[in-house]
């Protein structure tokens, strides 16, 4: 395991490896499962979904990560079912000229925390070996619906690769107490954790002795946030067989919709209370005039 860099040569990777490459000047990374034969299975937007209406980060990530329609190397490069975001491309189209890196599993907590950027390793061990990762990836590639809808924070390409390697998913929609509203991916936790760390460290200004103290507090909160959202530490994850994944995702979607309706109902005031609040001031005004 590389402490400073996980960069590897093409000759070093093997089928079942979780690989990634940095995009847009190291702004974010794109992840996939290497399935052998210089081919990668990864997760992006669904084929029929256009960029209109999508978050800009999702649209840019999706467009850059898609395989070329005219790949000179492999005729099947860019294979993707219409109702799925899981796509098969050659390694060259996946990298898009970027460097190749290998994601590490079973990282000790000290090593995990030493990584300043998320999305490079996890404390969770891989499950079932290389064959299991390839089997999960290929199953999702050939099944309509694939890995569900792409979401940059809750269901992205790193989440897909993490599932293929571990078989773990959040038990319910919306994550849990350890990571509400955040998926399993390290870079999503980092993206949320940077502003969150600065915000949470504000109450500690009186305890921090100057700028260095504030920096130390902010760094501590940031690292703690990254650690507790790691899939190897969180308590709200369950093992889901790939054959049962479609049913699990459907259950999560139904629970999310139910929770959204319930929240909306709670926010709407009762009709009787709303009417009485408008009538009381008018009644008092008339009494004063008399």
UniProtKB/TrEMBL annotation:
Matches recorded under InterPro entries: LRAT_dom (IPR007053)
Coiled-coil intervals: none
Compositionally biased intervals (Low complexity): 262-274
Domain LRAT: 20-173
Domain of life: Eukaryota
A Pfam family it matches: LRAT
Signal peptide from the UniProt entry: none
Biased composition, class Basic residues, residue ranges: 281-290
Region (Disordered): 258-290
PANTHER family: OS05G0310600 PROTEIN (PTHR46137), OS08G0546900 PROTEIN (PTHR46137:SF20)
Protein name in the entry: LRAT domain-containing protein
UniProt source species: Urochloa decumbens
